[in-house]
Amino acid sequence: MAAWAMKNELVDDARPAGGPARARRPTLPGNVKAVVWARAAGRCQFGGCNKLLIGDLVSGNARLNTAYIAHIVSDSPTGPRGNEIDSPRLTTDPNNLMLMCDAHHREIDGTTTWRDYPVERLQAMKQDHEQRIAIVTAINPDRACHVIRFAAGIGRNESPVAADHIKTALLPERYPADGGWIDLDVPDLGVPDHDPNYWQFHRKLLGQKFAEKVRGRLERGDIRRLAVFGLAPIPLLVELGRLISDISDAEVRQLLREPKGWSWDSSPGRLALDDGIPQRSRKAVALKLELSG
């Protein structure tokens, strides 16, 4: 078994059904477990899981511990990914240990599934998770901001602005302040945007919501910095900008099409220019420029 149960007791090694029992062994040293827990921030490190392993909403037990610490290279030479050299050497090495929920702990060490999770794959999961935790926890408290999320239908399309996408776009420069989510979404009341009443109605509703949720807090100094994520018809976005004004410390984000998301792609783009001498001489020269986004 490549995992230690998170209890102050001895635990059995996993074995095939009906197989011989293996020797019991003590739990990991407390300082090693503390390092693993801290690096994982109490969440499952299996790629895409991120489940919080403390507390239970159903039972209401806030102190419930559902975590396992799994070995990448098994501490037993005959265990998953184990060998005679690395198994004893890496038994208590935090770099060889991952915090996992029960389901994914069973997955990576299952008798029929463990081969799907070689050392390199698990190490990549662990590294990605710990780098994300390091970025999030390293943000200075003065980087907090209040997030305005504004969406209104564009034609026949809905305009959702997902909270998870916003958080990803803000990090690592910013993060949402506690209680800092401000929704100004305009509900679809069946009025199409080609109806002249659409603009008057939505402008009035947006102004009411802004006055109720934002303006007073700005004037009192409760909001120091805004991050604005809007996806709506352009006239409504212009109106939102007018309401915020240039007095407020506001950062405006735009939804990009390629790659789709709210963060600018900082990688260098590809641009190829070809020049040549035309075969025929012409009197008229035309220059055409197209700008988008």
List strands and helices in order, with pairings:
Blueprint (H helix, E strand, L loop, with lengths): L2 E3 L24 H11 L27 E4 L14 H4 L7 E4 L1 H8 L9 H19 L6 E8 L11 H8 L4 E9 L12 H25 L5 E6 L2 H11 L5 E4 L40
Parallel strand pairs: 4-5, 4-6, 6-7
Antiparallel strand pairs: 1-2, 2-3
Helix pairs in contact: 6-7
Order of helices and strands: EHEHEHHEHEHEHE
The N- and C-terminal alpha carbons lie at a distance of 54 Å
The major beta sheet can be summarized as: 4 strands, parallel
Mean pLDDT: 83
Number of strands: 7
Describe this structure in words.
With 293 residues, the chain is an alpha/beta fold. It has 2 domains: 3-136, no CATH class; 141-253, Rossmann fold (3-Layer(aba) Sandwich), CATH 3.40.50. 29% of the residues lie in helices and 13% in strands. The protein has 7 helices and 7 strands. The chain has helices at 30-40, 86-89, 102-109, 119-137, 163-170, 196-220, 234-244; strands at 3-5, 68-71, 97-100, 144-151, 175-183, 226-231, 250-253. The strands form 2 sheets. Strands 5-4-6-7 form a 4-stranded parallel β-sheet. A 3-stranded antiparallel β-sheet has the order 1-2-3. It is extended and about 80 Å long. The relative contact order is 0.09. Residues 1-23 have low confidence and may be disordered.
